[in-house]
Amino acid sequence: MRAAGMVLHPRRDSAAAVRAILGWAANRGIEILGIADEVARLDCAAVAVSPEELAARSDLLVSLGGDGTMLRAMRLADRQRAPVLGVNLGKLGFLAEVDVPDLPAALSAIDDHQFTVEPRLAVDARLGDRTVTAFNDVAVARVPGDGSAVVAVGVAGQEFVSYAADAVIVATPTGSTAYSFSAGGPITSPAVEALLVTPAAPHSAYSRGVVLSVHDTVELTMLPTSGRLAVEVDGEVAAYVGPGDRIELRARPGAARVVRLGMTTFYQRARRKLGLTDSPEIPRLPPV
Predict the structure, then answer these.
(1) Average pLDDT for the chain
(2) Is 129 an active-site residue?
(3) What pLDDT, on a 0 to 100 scale, did the predictor assign at position 273?
(4) pLDDT, tens digit, 9 for 90 and up, residues 244-263
(5) What is the homologous superfamily of the domain 3-115+261-273 according to CATH?
(6) What is the mean pLDDT of residues 133-140?
(7) Annotated catalytic residue within 67, 137, 234, 245
(8) For the residues of the chain, what is the DSSP string, one character each?
């Protein structure tokens, strides 16, 4: 490994994690890169570069923050060679692989090639003359005071289902534990290649979510009775749409890769971090 890049949360204290990374790199002759305005806050020894240069030059990206920072690192890694190691700096950190105290051991495991990489699916949304990419979800959500999201979902050029709801969410398996889960969608392993369509607070005759093939193009059409809607891409507003507008979405498997060290499985993380519990009337099975 010649170079590793750091992606930092804009507010959380990452000094301890940065020191661990710089110490590890100094002993191995690895150059540490950071986005210029992020590393300037820490006055550290990382080489300041642009986001584009960070992605192109790094053999490993280390995300220091929460899920939002991890998603930003994955977007930087999109179509690049570097896998992403997620380090949680507090709060939920569902997508992160390790907490700060475990970082030195994680870096040593990477040195010893004791890790795997897990491909992550992205979804590209065509908005007019531009395309935006999400690793969690693309949602069309009602703007307060502007009416509901009344949206037709087409699949592979065919009409499929329509929803009237507060929002319609198209999520990847990575995003199944985020907005889609909050709206009642299923938890889906990142090993599954699919797109999940979930209505939030639906008030139409059909209110179930659907699971779609990654090989089919998905089209969202805002119907005449729809209000003005915000298009949210990984939680950030990317555009606004209204009646008659259409959004074309295409899944892109293997867009980025994340580092897995085998410390926990997806199911263990989901159970612990989402607070999944068994119903009290269901007898517990003995541990296997």
Answers:
(1) 93
(2) no
(3) 78
(4) 999 999 999 999 999 999 87
(5) Probable inorganic polyphosphate/atp-NAD kinase; domain 1 (3.40.50.10330)
(6) 98
(7) 67
(8) --EEEEEE-SSS--HHHHHHHHHHHHTTT-EEEEEHHHHTTTT-SSEEE-HHHHHHH-SEEEEEESHHHHHHHHHHHTTSS--EEEEE-SS--TT-SEEGGGHHHHHHHHHTT--EEEEEEEEEEEETTEEEEESSEEEEEEPTTS--EEEEEEETTEEEEEEEESEEEEE-SGGGGTHHHHTTPPP--TTS-EEEEEEES--SS----EEEETTS-EEEEE-TT---EEEEETTEEEEEE-TT-EEEEEEEEEEEEEEE-SSS-HHHHHHHHTT----TTSPPPPP-
